[in-house]
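no rush on this but wanted to send it before i forget. what follows is a protein written twice so to speak, once as letters and once as structure tokens for the fold. mainly i need to know what kind of three dimensional shape the backbone takes. thanks a lot i owe you, the record is right below.
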Amino acid sequence: MRKPLNKTRLEPTIALINVVFLMLVFFMVAGTLAQPLDKDLRLVRTSDLEGRAPPDTLVVHPDGRLTYRGKAIASAQAFYAARPENEREVVRIVPDAALSAVTLVNLARELRAAGALRVMIVTERGLE
């Protein structure tokens, strides 16, 4: 008597791969979050714009000079005291890239000591 050969059944991995691939394609198409832009729409280009500090910020130059709206400021306390009451809560600083970090930290400490609740540093990316 011969023993029947046990053939191992191959698992249908190709079919499983096809199902997973079709699900992937379906979710890529169905999962679009935003409507596509109109084909005739042209977006604004900002690469040629000159970056400027917002008008309500304290500008700190590389040598430590302070200016506000183009005018020289004697000290951080004088800047803070000259601000209107409703603008004293948040102070924005635009430092020059060459400004020493120690000078920037000391300036922020002076503004906090004068009464500012938050001192925000505006960077180049924030101006874009």
